[in-house]
């Protein structure tokens, strides 16, 4: 599945977010933020993201992390999920990481 094909309902199903009150947060805030993170990390364009189906998994994990880790008191040493980092590193063309 391509990132562009994911709907907020599909992402909510993957992440286990069940309340309908979160539709706006997931669809209009977190999904665009996750896509921006992936393009910034990899250096790929949004069109190039759709060439790699496994990036959809990283996308969903990022949305889940963004939704569940909203506490401003979390450790400053918090790292990106190893799953996300591994998948994104496969396609990083900017070599800044």
Automatic annotation (TrEMBL):
Highest taxon in the source lineage: Bacteria
InterPro entries, sorted: Phage_HK97_gp6-like (IPR006450)
Gene3D superfamilies for the chain: Phage gp6-like head-tail connector protein
NCBIfam families for the chain: put_DNA_pack
Name of this protein: Gp6-like head-tail connector protein
